[in-house]
Design a protein that fits this description.
Length: 86
């Protein structure tokens, strides 16, 4: 989807739909962002789990715990993802 942002930024497309997380601080000021009302929007869901045959299950579980922690959620929100608390 970041290719769509680039095409719009370069004037190669008049408009495009992308995830908000694809609009980085580096390009945000060069675009006009029009939020889509919640009732028309589709919210992507990203499951997280340790795979059954993981070579590093403890590390994978630690990563999941970090992502779900307040610090991990703050990182996701910083990059325009919706945290667990909406």
């Amino acid at each position: 989807m970041k290719a769509v942002v680039t095409k719009v930024q370069l004037g190669e497309a008049d408009a495009g739909f992308v995830y908000q997380s694809d609009v980085t601080d580096a390009v945000a000021s060069k675009l006009t962002i029009i939020p889509i009302p919640d009732n028309f929007n589709v919210i992507a869901q990203y499951p997280i789990a340790v795979v059954k045959n993981s070579a590093h299950p403890n590390d994978a579980q630690a990563f999941i715990q970090y992502v779900l922690s307040p610090d991990g959620q703050a990182v996701l929100v910083k990059f325009h993802f919706i945290g667990l608390n909406g």
